[in-house]
Structure formats: structure tokens, C-alpha cells
Task: structure prediction
Amino acid sequence: MEAALISARSAGVLTLSFNRPAKLNAFNFEIADGLIAALEAAEDDASVRAIVLRGNGRGFSAGQDLEVFLQLAASGERVDIAQHLRKTYNRVAGLLRRVEKPVIASLNGIAAGVGLSVALACDLRVAADDAELTLGFSKIGLIPDGGASFMLPLLAGLGRALELAWTSEKIGAAEAQRIGLVNRVVPAADLERETQALAERFTRISPAAVGLTKRAFNRAVMPNFERWLEEEAELQQAAADGGDVLEGIRAFVEKRIPAYAK
Ligand code: T3D
Result:
């Protein structure tokens, strides 16, 4: 079986490709654990000067694999989502901000749910002109997590962030650029080349200047990000304990509209 996360190196650029194209790269434990291990290794590897996250097939990622997630609710009674976040996406988001190298998300097709959260925790986003972004959490009774409750208002402003979170509206690449969620929009056919070219620019800039600039900006605007991730996880647990999440996920798996009690 092919690996769900593929790692490749070229000219000082580490590229991590999500590789579950039949499931639109929905995240499973192999992807989350693989990302954590790869980012931790890259942090201490001076030969890695920039990192690219991308998805194979027709999307970046459709977010958490909801079938896997349903299995976590083994008793059918409670999803221990806070613990899940602590083990997976909070570590990923924390590392994406902590690693003092540029991390670029290369967005093709859909970026949804915690797939979008991961993209937002990166430093830069390059989007194909056919890319689409949606939070999707509200559709299954959840709040944006994986750091998105922090990154989204930071990048897009409070009003637009709340609107996107509450409605799970799907927006295209041009709108995402207009509101500050992506840095560049390029023709879909050029996405890989343009992303690699941008990443390679950082191999020609002082790594100390690049890394310390990221540290300075992190400290200036998000000095308590890791603490916030824990608070976000606790709020997500409160949302999950409200009970709508199981119905939301079952409805997705059964390909029907959820029937929330109230
Ligand atoms: O711990 C935590 O707190 C994490 C919490 C995370 C929350 C989230 O990430 S919320 C999930 C957010 N994701 C979504 O809301 C997206 C769900 N997917 C969709 O709405 C649609 O798939 C798309 C709009 C993205 C694409 O639609 P379409 O028609 O192009 O493709 P499709 O046929 O729906 O999907 C292709 C396959 O991928 C399909 O599988 P199948 O039926 O061919 O075997 C579909 O079930 C699967 N897939 C897509 N998204 C997911 C998924 N499977 C599992 N989990 C998914 N998220």
C-alpha cells in the first residue's frame, strides 16, 4: 500500500505530499503522525531551507477523515476530541508556527475543515485558480480547530472569519486572496512550478534572517499560540459534548442531510 504522506527533497526544499487521493486526502493518523515526524526532523536539519505542503490528486485535503473519526467514538457516546487534537493537529499547527523555516501550502482543488486549518497555520499559501476553501466544521456541529480559530480572524478579520466559520461557505481562490487567506493565485497548470520557485527563493536568503523574522513575527502577533490551541481544544470538546457532532458525521458517512435535534 502506498504511503499516505510522501516526502521528497529538491534543491533545499522539502515537499510533503498528502497521498490519499481517492478520499480527497482526508487526514488519517498516518498523515498527522507523518507530518509531526517530518516537521520535527526538518526543524533540526540545516539542509532543509523551505517546506512545501501539497496534496496529490484533485485536492489539498478534505479535512479530518470523518469515517476514522466516527470509529474514535467507540462507545457511540462521546468523542474525546480534545485528546485527539492534542495528539494530532495541535502538534501539527504548533510545529508549523515553530519551525523557523518558511512553510508554504500549495492549494489545488479543495481545502476543507482541518485541511484548511493546516494550510492557514503555514506561513504562505499559493493557490491554483480553481482552488476552493471551506471550513466545514459548523456542518458537523464543531468549531474551527487546528489553530483556525486563531489564524482565520488574524488573516481575514473578525467579521469575515465569523461569517466563514458559521456558514461554512465555500470560497474560490480569488476571494481567498482578496480577504488575505492566500498570498498568490496562479493558473492550476503552473501551481507546482510556481510553488517550487517561491520555495527555492528562500534557499538564496540568509537562513538566520528568514528564521529570526518568523520568530519575531510569531512573538509580535501570536506569542501565546500554543496556549490558545489548548483552549481551542477545550472549546471543541464542549461543542462535541453538545451531541450534534455524531449526527453530523454519521450524516456525512451515510451521504444524507443531518437531522439535529434543536
Ligand atoms: O480532531 C478534530 O477536531 C478534527 C476535526 C476536524 C473537522 C473537520 O475536518 S470537518 C470535515 C471537513 N470536511 C468537510 O466538510 C468536507 C467533506 N467532504 C465534502 O464535503 C466533499 O467530499 C467535497 C465537497 C470536499 C468534495 O465533493 P466531491 O463531490 O468532489 O467528492 P466526494 O465524492 O464527496 O468525495 C470523494 C471521496 O472522498 C468520497 O469517498 P467515496 O464515496 O468515493 O468512497 C468521499 O466520501 C471522500 N471524502 C471526502 N471528504 C472526506 C471523505 N472521506 C472521509 N472524510 C472526509 N472528510
Observations:
- The pocket of T3D is lined by residues 23-24, 26, 62-67, 81, 84-85, 89, 110, 112-114, 136-137, 139-140, 142, 145, 236 (CB under 6 Å).
- Strands lie at 5-10, 13-18, 50-55, 59-61, 103-107, 110-112, 124-128, 132-134, 171-172, 184-186.
- Residues 96 and 155 are 16 Å apart (CA to CA).
